Give the backbone structure.
Amino acid sequence: MDFPESFLAARYALLHGDDAEGRVQAVSGWKARHVDPELEDFSLIVCPEGCQWPVVQSALMESAPFGADRVVIVPQADNLLERAKELPKAVKGFLTKPLGGTCLLLVARSVLSAAPGRILASKPFSDWNKEGRALKLGALDTEAARAYLESKAAELRVRLDAGVAQSLADRLGGNPGVLSRALEVLELIAEGGRITHAIVDQATFRMGEQNAFAWSKAWQKGQVAEAMKNLRIAVEDDPSGAPLALLSQARREVERLCCLHEAKQNGLKSQSDLMSALGLTPKQAFLLDGYERVLNRVRPDGLKKLATLLVEADADVKGVALSQSPTPLTNLTLVLCRAWGGR
């Protein structure tokens, strides 16, 4: 995987995103630029996961062997980057004006936000972001995922039939690690180095769990046609199990909205309190903005209607209602699209 020169050459840099495989490669690439292999045992310090800023600062101030830089890597810096306003003044100082003879790489396992008040919108990280020193390795959008698949296919020397890259991107999402492994599997089973739509289908990527994910991903983007298509595919592939899997995906999201509404009603305001109320981990901090956006859009009355419709669909799928028709899931899909996508 190729990484921007602006990131690799930066003496102080930030790496963030949920692509674990990409993070490993990016850390390795940055480290190769700044650490002399012969002096690594003496010049490199890897901070403990979840450490605080004083630990990072102390590591940077430790002397390094003559002629070598002191290089510090913080492998899990999410807790250090949660609140932009709480960044200590001394820390802002050395992040803005790096200490001489030092290199620092901060690694966050979640995608950091550049929204107002968030860490990437605040100095010095806003400057790092503009200068290309903050590298994001999160999910790719559809166009970027398709381009990544085509590039990976050329690297593996396999040919993709027309539309295969788009189909894989639609089914698997935009995680580069997942896309890369999928192509590696397809390469093994493809005869003559040609990957067709039939081979993709035979590789069982249209499993119930994946269909449920594709369905929820579509309505979270407000993509009505795509959500309806994925609903049909899921039910056709697994008529007995898919509806329950789909409802489980929807129930989790609606329950989190309800928890967020209740938390706000109880006066909770801080990010940590709201995340705790929703059952989110620090790695999922980026999800909170999305839930707040949806809640502001649907308001309490809309949330109540959404929860009621979910209960009705659940009752129908489980056989409590009399109709047992596909209509409740169809109606639920449309309402979810409007709620999350604003349509």
The CA atoms of residues 52 and 80 lie 7 Å apart. The first strand starts at residue 12 and ends at 16.
